[in-house]
Amino acid sequence: MAVRRKVQSLMLAHRRLFSSSDTSSKEKTRAALSVIRFEQNPERIIDVCRSAGLTPESHLDRIVFSKAISKLRELKHYDGIRAFVEESMNQPGCRSERYASHCIIVYGQGGLIDHAIKLFDRMPEMGIERNVKTLNSLLFSCLLAREYGQIKRIFLEFPRKYGLQPNLETYNTILKGLCNSGGAREAHSILAEMERKCIKPSATTFATVIAGFYSEENLADVGKMLQLMNKYNMRVGISIYNVRIHSLCKLGRLAEAKALFDGILSNGMKPNCRTYGHLIYGYCRRGRLDTAKALFQEMVDMGLKPESECYFTLVYYLCQGKDFQAASTICEDCMSNGWVPNTTTMKSLVHGLAANNKVDEARRIVCLLKNRFRRNSQIWDEIEEGLPK
User: Fold this and answer.
1) What's the pLDDT tens digit per position in 73-99?
2) By the 8 A CB rule, do 210 and 185 touch?
3) Around Cβ 307, how many Cβ atoms within 10 Å?
4) Which of the residues 98, 115, 335, 351 has the least number of beta carbons within 10 Å of its own beta carbon?
């Protein structure tokens, strides 16, 4: 009921905002975003987007458009997605290659890959040129929709069918699709084709394939990729080390991940915040929280700023390990940077502090959350009322 009342009040406020001639387009877009976050009625989501007058030229508008599509997909309102995208394509100034590419990607985001393909097919009828950029958008759309069979079919058929020459982005996208779907072994033939066509792989190419081989625990082919990088005179930099360390941590092979980390240091290479973040994640998953905390402190002492995901991981696992005092300290540091762990983690932290006679600390965190998230402060009001007096 509280959320419903909140949405109703937001809707009333934003109707006044949308109807005002003095309101800027950015204000309308931000207002639309705040409504979409809470709204559960798909028709109202579409109405809000219409009222905001979203345009393809604005980056912020495209973010709101994508957010609306994601919400409509969550609500399984696929007819609404289709109608909304078609309607937007018919707006003045929207018949362009750039906007068609955006709509193709949005269809993938909405889980409507068949419509993305149809839009790609009929682009010439709409006066829009098909080119490798729109082909890459279609492949990326398949990635978003996790339509890995389609991405492979399109890659094999469409360049020949439409007279398009794949570029590096095309190959990187198909490699991502293969590696995401357990087909990393096929990367060898893709890389051989790239060599025949004189398209040099990038660091992203190798990072994708190496991660794919690790996910399939094919360590021999990881070694082959590192040798291939040497063939192309490509330095194995920190980004590749980070991919390897992260992959090993996901597999639970902490000793190997730590050995790579030690190798970075002995070679005079500097680890970055992601290197530490991946190791912290690995140690947290194994319940080795003291080591994870020590690595976090080492990272900070080196002057490296932890990323939000590193904070979230550490706070979550410290709460799981009932080390609420350490979780609270790190969480407050996290919040001072403008980042807040998810509601479930924060509830666990508040209740854990209260259960360990740290009620004042729990209340202080609740107060910070209420100030930070005024729109859903009622959730934290209820939690605060349930804390020991």
Assistant:
1) 989 999 988 988 888 877 766 678 888
2) no
3) 16
4) 98
